[in-house]
Amino acid sequence: MPTLEIQERVVIKAPVERVWKFLLDPPRVVECLPGANFDGAESDTVFLGHIKVKVGPVATNFAGKATMAEIDEAAHRVRIVGEGKDKSGAGTARLEMTGRVTAVDGGAELAVDAGVDLTGKIVTFGRGLIKSVSAQLFKEFSARAQAMLEVESAAEPAPLPAKKEEAIGGISLLLRAIASSIAGFFRRLFRRRR
Q: How many CB atoms lie within 10 A of CB 105?
């Protein structure tokens, strides 16, 4: 079972074909992903990059490669397999993701389903906090992808929301996770006393 399962959806007010072409263009996708950088291509389907992620006090900088293992043009579906290592040697990440673009009222829906296996120090913070950081990453990615793809004219591109070059922070998420854990402790404590 993966360390983390991700199921995210975002509606983009743009034609299906535009969103699909975006999904198959790694440099443009990475441009929308906070903390990520595109490092080049090994082939038409194998891409290199790195991403900085911070969960609580632990910051990781994963470098690796992603492979478009399956591309179904007719169904607008792509399966991507990625793997990377923390540059400090403190962990690894492996991802298997399916991305689909479907027509919906007002545009296209981009659906992402992924399983992520993590090892190293980052795992000590638990799935809840890691999932919160992941959700925040997707929220920021979605906002940037929408801004990029929803422009009416390529001649007048809308400014993209600022991309954070630093690692994605998890301090507020850590505080929320701690508060949630404390609240859960007291709920269990009071249940036992009844």
A: 6
